[in-house]
Input
Amino acid sequence: MKKSTVLSSELRPSPRRFAVKILNRIDEQRGYAEPLLNAYLSADEQENQRNKNLITQIVLGTLRMRGYLDWIIKHYYRGSFEEMDIGAKNILRAALFQIFFMDRIPSYAIVNESVELVSPRKQKQKALVNGLLRNVLRTKEHIPWPDRINNPSLYIAVRHSHPLWLVEKWIALFGEEETLQRCASHNIIPPAAIRVNPLKTSRQNMITEMEHAGWNIEGSLYSPDSIHILHAETPVKNTSWFTEGKIQLQDDASQLIAHFLQPQPGEKILDLCAGTGGKTTHMAALMGNKGCIIAVDNQKKKLNSLQEMACRLGITCIKTICRDGRTGLPFQPDSFDAILVDVPCTGLGTLRRNPEIKWHLDAGEIPKVVSLQKDLLENAATYLRRGGRLVYSTCTILPEENDDQITSFLMRHREFCQEKYISHIPLSCLDENGFMKTTPHQHNTDAFFAALLKKY
Output
């Protein structure tokens, strides 16, 4: 790739300048990469698809490998890394990611442009960026990496780029080798997975259409509605299949949640934490758009997105309510046939797609999340009729958010029991206790948890 010729132009910023701006926003505002990328990449300045791909690769790659990159910076930087300007850090991180993980760009070009990204008013930062990067290029073969035998936690944290506290927690839970595999899998770019909308077409018809259009795809091994896109020149959201509502972007593990609940035509279903509606609309499709789904969320913006998605997919059986799901809802007790409680969680099962989460999350936040989940589950249980089904699900791997929540709930509610023999979910996605557990390194999906409860 040739070096950009518009480095100093504010009218058409270079892809690398865009990437650093996004990384700064993520750090300064605890933002999320996906919506920021979508916002920046929709700008007219970045019409070239190759530039868009480069921005995405640098942003997500830098976030995935940030622990690895910070180890390098700390080795060469003589000042306090914690006090270094955020902008300088991200210029260095992005440059080092390109040097160590992208082989199409000449190193001298990376260094030169990185220096140009520093504000002209910050000459000391220009000298820092230039000097540190050139030092790395001269001596990168001699960087002292942590030793796995003497310090396995630090080795995994640095080489596979995860916070040390999280690695130590996982080693205590899963062991060293399992933790290493999990961390390594989080740094592999995941396949794009789409859910076929049965209200508009079938998976086989969709596979045929996409193959005829030259797309490199394959059917999922886990979700009967999913297709994996192995390579495509056109973003999914830019296709007529997407705009016509034939398909929806959704990871396989996320798709399995609706199948776990098994919604039936004509049922009345409560989706207590509906969010933007991926699982809500999937349940509606499995019901044949017959019945009623009440989608509750405390963020109106998310419910607006849900309604837009439902309209695009041709779904009319969903009604939305903006309300805190922990408190009283405008329903009678025992009034729903089935309930989905897809609770807010730490999101540690989605690090392949949302690598910024591992740098945002603090260990002190986990008890607060667990308390919120407990309150949501407690309130949801009130509205399930006897004989009804309740699915509790998360996209995380921490026992305190998953297994422990269900064990504690069942001790408090003797009228509920867990369904352990679930024939409609692939056996490889179920553990010995009947919980659904998927992982990137075992299933090439996000890590999801689900438990199916019945009320008697």
